[in-house]
Amino acid sequence: GTEPPGITEWHCDFESDGEDDVWCGLEKIQNGFEIKHGTDAATGTNPATDHTTGTDKGAMLYLSMPSNNNTQRSILRSPEINVPDISVSSCLSVWYTNPSPHAGFIKFKIQNGSAPSDVMGDQILMVDGTFPSLEWQLGIETFLPPASGSFRLQIIGQSPNGKPGSQEESGIALDDVKITDEPCQMPGTCSFQGSTCFWAIGEEENNGQFHWHLHTGSENTTWPKNDHTFQEAAGGYLSAHMKKNYSGPAHTSLESVALYPTPLTGSCFTFWWAKQGGDIATIQVLLKEPSWSSWMVIWSLIGTLTADPSIEGDWHFASVPFNASSVPFKIQIFAIGHKKDAGWIAIDDTDIQEGTCEVIPPSAIVVPVTPSPTTTVNTPTPPLNSWECDFNENVCGLQNVNTSIKWERQNTLNCTDHSEGVWYLSLPKDVDAGSKALAQTRPIQSPENIDARCIVFYYYIYGANTGQISVITKHGDFEPEAIWTQGNPKGASWHKAYIDVTLTTSNFRIQFEGIKGQNKEGEVAIDDIVLKDQQCSSFFPTEKPGVPVACDFEESSLCNYEVEDGKGTFDRVYSNDPNLIFKPPHADHTYNTGYGHYMAAVLTDDRDGKVATLKSPKYDTVQDTSYCIEFWYVHSGTTSRDYLNVYIVNEFDFFPHPDWREESAHVGKWLSANIPVRSNRKSFHMEWEVEQQKRDTVGVITIDDVEVHLKDCKNI
After folding, report:
1. CATH: 3.40.30.120, 1.10.760.10, 2.60.120.200, 3.40.30.10. Which one for 387-538?
2. Is 641 left (phi over 0), alpha (psi -120 to 50) or beta?
3. Which CATH class is domain 199-375?
4. pTM for this prediction
5. Mapping DSSP to helix (H, G, I), strand (E, B) and coil, where does residue 304 land?
6. Contact at 8 Å (CB) between 26 and 155?
7. Contact call for residues 512 and 499 (beta carbons, < 8 A)
8. What is the pLDDT of residues 158-190, one digit of tens each?
């Protein structure tokens, strides 16, 4: 039904409940969507039952492009949603069917709550006919709400290539569209706290003598006393109880939603189990693809459940390595109870991760999958200790995650300025703004407790508003964290990035995210990624003589830069520091986060004259070599009353003059500057001098990402 004003979550099942609005407050911006029921399936391509009720009387949203829709696009917009905390991610989940690869697609975008209806938001999810089926499939995506805390969901349906398909190929159905104010729990992952998440319990058989049910330890002394997730009596889990004196055997099943293909490097399904009673004897994990006529057992635990009385009642870990093929698959947990004694079996904390794992317990039987050559179970691959890839032969096991677009291996750019090869990963060009690609490494393990690592790679961002690159760390089940983001255009050249990371779990991954901007002609690419088993400071800023020197001020040593105080000073700061007396830029330039460091000279209202000077180390030059100084700065002050002077100084400059001067304020915005070094110098160093006149307000001038290039400034 229609939600009240000020809603923090929103859900629409398109059902008519009394006087409820079947559209749930959705605003029709452009026609093309309609409400259908399963009984309409005979004359259309919608499924025979809806998702909410599972009956032919249930309602669903259906996309059918009308002949008078000249743009071949249909748009709905949700009521305004206000989240209580913008720092907490929200979740969009939607159930859909798509009968054909030619039936078109539906995009879901997040629009600022105050934006006009014709302004497109940022895309967070797209469902299409990649895996055509009239069975209900799940689309799900975690997203960060806009800074205003207020947004609307845009549902945009479109036929392929702007042309409607045939009657047999048209039509996408949606149901149970839902936004919640907490991160998504991904398919296959469940702690069973009051629900089975995206798992479905099989139909009751054997007169209910042995059937999965949700329970807590506080309900009955027959079940586990505590769940595994919280180790508390009030915690939830799933269990099946074999009734006393039942002649048996009996079985019960738990089935996942359709899950999407994983790379050839494999996947890992994990869960925790507990049991009580001698004849609760078998747990199996099964795999099924749509083309298979039956389920295939890929993992089975039999003897362990009956042979060792010491394991009774305790939680035990299980892991199942497997490979899926190129079509969606499902997983089933199948438990068998045998006759004689009463007993129970319980499971908790299921999870599916990309990357293989070892078989646990070792006594479990792993059965190779035989119907398809692409679904055999590989020997588990050990976690990575270090990793590197130049993409010249392949992607080195880097795995594309299921997002709206994929990183593509290309070779059209000039890579010779940093690599002997020509291949790299880039974002596709002709895609919508906001389209996201995400690729991740296999799990990385820290050998001998060495948890300090350095990621080194090259990136290429050419063209204004082309897009951005983020490096994200994922520690086990914790929320992924972006540790580096760059979206500023850097010109037609490759740039090197160094990022320190700390491993905190054995299931640690590095993810590379690319988000496309409005400029479809620009280029966003990454190359030559290396994960080193040492801190960046051990070889930064130079790995070998001749490599251009750079400083991002992330280290407290300041790369051996010196500060000369005047009436103030240069301080190494970060924007999220609550003790700052000035209004900082929203983030540093290096990592584009509030915790990245830069140098800042504060402009106060009680000073007149030189504030401070920042001095670099001395650099020796090579004859007949061009040098260019590049740096980024923010001038938040008063135009023509504050000055940033930059000097390129050698040992004979007794009365140096500024080589570059800035006196125009650009509040809160990082700008770049390039200064050529005169060729007749044997050595030089740089000085950034800040001057101010008295004023009525507090301002700041900041410096970040200084780099000495061995090339002409015109080539940067």
Report:
1. 2.60.120.200
2. alpha
3. mainly beta
4. 0.49
5. helix
6. yes
7. no
8. 865 444 444 445 578 999 999 998 888 888 899
